[in-house]
Each structure stands twice: as C-alpha cells, then as structure tokens.
Amino acid sequence: MTTQHLNQIQLARRWNISHRTLERWRSLNEGPPFLKIGGRVVYRQDDIEHYEAEQRRNDRSQSQHFAQSGGLA
Fold first, then answer.
1. Binning pLDDT at 50, 70 and 90, where does residue 59 land?
2. Do 64 and 58 meet the contact criterion of CB atoms below 8 Å apart?
3. Domains in the chain and their CATH numbers?
C-alpha cells in the first residue's frame, strides 16, 4: 500500500484556505503534522484525515439546548 501525500497548495485547495495559512500554522506548531523532505513540505493523507476527524464538532447538543430554551442561549 502506497502512502498518499498532498503538498500545501493541494491541501489549501481541499480546505478552501490560503496556503499562507498552512505556512503560518506550521510556524506556530498548529495544524496537521507535515513532512519536510528536501525542502519540500508534504502532508500524509492519513494525517490529514485524522486531523479533520479531530476538528469535527458535534453541535447537536447545542442545537437541542437552543431549541428547548426558546431560541435564547
């Protein structure tokens, strides 16, 4: 099985963000893990999907609370 990689431009397109945001996140030690090979930054597909899963929010409980309180939080 071959590991798939995305470069920062491809990942920025996937998430509809600027590649500069990914650069900033790397400098702040935020965002998904990355590899730097020969001066080239790449992100493993598995790491991207894991990061996306970690960012998932379940707003269901907040929606139910909002509805039960008559729309006032």
1. low
2. no
3. 5-57 (1.10.1660)
